[in-house]
Design a protein that fits this description.
The protein is α/β, with parallel strands linked by helices. It has nine helices and eight strands. The relative contact order is 0.17.
């Protein structure tokens, strides 16, 4: 593995949490060792599903000391950025297809005090990265087609992750800022090692966390297993 890859971060996806007790779920995964909270926003327009909005983000903010990682699967993006920034987002990621002016959207996110991320769908080429690397804090590689939780990991994502890692490493070697490489979709204890070896450092896990808590250790057990599987001996 490339030694420049940053330490592992695990980001439980609240899309798979129990929404009837969301504050309790947030506190539980944070206490269990989560590094980020992944908050999926779907609009039934950009993707065929409808999820939570800024009011829910604001409601969970008091329950979380760790960063809230807002993933916008919605369009148009620019009007949503200030709303989610006020709702407590620490990092806002959007899909380049959902913005007419990607550079401007990235600037808007940073102007509102948040870190900026750019998401790539399975069929979206990486070439745009060459023009916006200086404005990114995170690159999100979708390993499923966005819209629903519980989908199977698309194996072709591994090669794409390696190419993204190479771009990020070259940017950092040339004096650029560090950029996290996140993967979202179908992450589990069975494949997280291969995903890590391909260059990812930040792992969104929904059903793998909320659907499979350890009988004895609860969420702490599954987070420990995910982290151990992603960390070579």
């Amino acid at each position: 593995m490339n030694t420049t890859v940053p330490p592992v971060w695990i980001a439980p996806s609240l899309l798979s949490a129990d929404f009837a007790r969301l504050g309790q779920e947030v506190r539980a995964v944070e206490a269990a060792g989560a590094d980020l909270l992944h908050f999926d926003v779907m609009d039934n327009h950009y993707v065929p599903n409808l999820t939570a909005g800024p009011l829910v983000c604001a409601a969970i903010r008091p329950h979380a000391a760790i960063p809230i990682d807002v993933h916008l699967m919605a369009e148009p993006v620019d009007a949503l950025v200030p709303v989610f920034a006020r709702a407590g987002a620490d990092l806002i990621t959007f899909h380049l297809e959902a913005s007419r002016h990607v550079d401007r959207t990235l600037g808007t996110i940073r102007e509102h005090g948040c870190k900026a991320g750019l998401a790539f769908n399975p069929a979206t080429p990486l070439s745009l990265l060459d023009y916006v690397m200086d404005k990114l804090d995170l690159v999100l590689m979708m390993s499923v087609n966005p819209g629903f939780g519980g989908q199977a990991f698309i194996e072709g994502t591994l090669a794409k992750l390696r190419r993204a890692r190479s771009r990020i490493d070259a940017h950092v070697a040339a004096g650029g800022q560090p950029i996290r490489l996140q993967v979202d979709g179908g992450v589990s204890t069975h494949n997280i090692g291969a995903i890590r070896a391909a260059g990812a450092d930040t792992f969104v896990a929904g059903s793998a966390v909320f659907g499979a808590p350890d009988e004895d250790l609860g969420y702490r057990g599954i987070l420990q297993r995910l982290r151990a599987a992603a960390t070579p001996m």
